[in-house]
Fold:
Amino acid sequence: MTTILGALLAVAVVTAALVATSLDRRTAALLGAAGSTTGNFLAWVVAPHAWAEVPLVPWVAAVAGTVASIALWSATRLYAGIFEPPRAARDDDTAALATVGPER
Structure:
């Protein structure tokens, strides 16, 4: 029971730390909670005995899962528009020409 409480505490602390330092708090909460939960789940699947016996493993898994989810989110945002055609150039009517002296 204490192992699960330690893992939940790791998820909460990592998520809170990410939310406290982020400009977009809702996205940070989503990425922090999902990433740290996924990291803990994968650590439990890969090494259940180490996850249950070593108190540091859920914390490392929470941080690693959060970092992985942020990296995946950033890569998705970076390449979201890579396959879209380029935008058509618009006429720029904001330029002004200042003339000094007589017109020619």
In short: The CA atoms of residues 35 and 69 lie 5 Å apart. The chain is about 65% helix and 0% strand. The radius of gyration is 24 Å. The mean pLDDT is 87.
